[in-house]
Amino acid sequence: MGVEEEFLLADPGSGATVPLAEKVVARASAADLPVGATVQRELRDTQVEAATGVCRDAAELRAYLAAGRRAVAAAARDYGAVVVASGSPVRGSGGAAPSSLARFAAIDEMYGEVTRDYEACGCHVHVGVADRDTAVAVVNHLARWLPTLLALSVNSPFHRERDTGYGSWRIVQQSRFPGSGLAPHLPDYAAYRAEIGRLVECGVVADEAQTFWFARPSPRLPTVEFRVADTASTVDEAVLQALLARALVRTALAELSRGREADPVPAQVAAAAVWNAARYGLAGPGVHLGLYRRVPATDLVAALVEHVRDALAGAGDLPEVHALLDRVRSGGTGADRQRRAAGLDGFPAVVTELTLRDETGAVGVTGSRD
Asked: Which domain of life is it from (predicted)?
């Protein structure tokens, strides 16, 4: 497994995002990163992405995530900025100008105003699979659980100093793009490529590498890629997403080995599940994608853990997942903590809460909760 984390670059005083990606990526890439780790640009010049190498257990993943966060935070500090772990900007933009990279500039041209203020940041998890036909079959199995992963991850309640009422405003912004949400139920990779090709031909995505689906076969790696979660404010929450994602893939592979294909999820019910997860996180109802009705989101988390229990136990991850979930239950989601910080001391406190720090108080590894 591996994880890609997208972050915002911000002015430490105002909290406004700042267009320093080119400088920060160059400086962070020159740091002493673990083998296979990378730092790269994202759609906006106010964003950076730190990617781990291939990890085989939670301890290795945790070390990679911490190293990537240290590198981008130290690089940003050299240019007078901080790195903020939020799915959307808490305060206004200080200059989310059109990207200087050709592909991103083409995306800006295609979508117009939709991407002008799109500084959304996600936590993407890759889990290895044998081949791309298998990846498509696995994605079919994942569909009913992806809204629950979103509900666990919500970390973008604010947009330009307004409380949106949503746990994940990032997902609301993403829903404005064609082909967002759950991927269509497809029989194999040839059908998947044909579906993407139709979207390209219709002029609504830039190329085969650009989709907004929450899970997909990676266009460049032998993995299933989860793209549902908001950027995690802490390493713990990123690890939780990765362990649950890997367990879901292993559970799907076990089902497929017994000849059990997934049933399609009705598109409108799937959309309702995504909306509820983005709106409420864990603090309200979710939609059960087997029963097609609302149930408490916390019940869906319990059902998810039960569904992947054997896979978690087999990997030795069950005790850690239970401990990490207990932390979410006691401390709340990232969105919950952002709102608490805002209520105590306004938006500057939210930016402080989300700024990557180490145990000495310098910018570095995790959110302030750790």
From this structure: Bacteria
The 10 Å CB-count burial string (b at 16+, else e) for 65-83 is bbbbbbbbbbbbbeeebbb
3-state secondary structure of 275: helix
Which residue reads 């044909």 in tokens?
194
Confidence label for 82 from pLDDT (cuts 50, 70 and 90): very high
**CA 30 – CA 342 distance, rounded (Å):** 36
Residue 182's closest CA among 81, 287, 106, 108? 287
Distance from C-alpha of 150 to C-alpha of 240, rounded to nearest angstrom:
12
Contact partners, residue 346, CB within 8 Å, separation at least 6: none
Query: Exposed, middle or buried: residue 296 (CB in 10 Å: 0-12, 13-18, 19+)?
Result: middle
pTM recorded for the entire structure: 0.94
Token pair for 58:
């939670």
CA 305 – CA 300 distance, rounded (Å): 9
**57, 296, 322, 327 from 302: Cα distances, Å:** 23, 10, 10, 15
Running DSSP on this structure, what letter comes out for residue 98?
A: P
Amino acid at 341: A
* Fold of the domain spanning 2-354: Creatine Kinase; Chain A, domain 2 (3.30.590)
CA distances from 348 to 151, 245, 367 (A): 25, 33, 14
Domain boundaries, the chain: 2-354
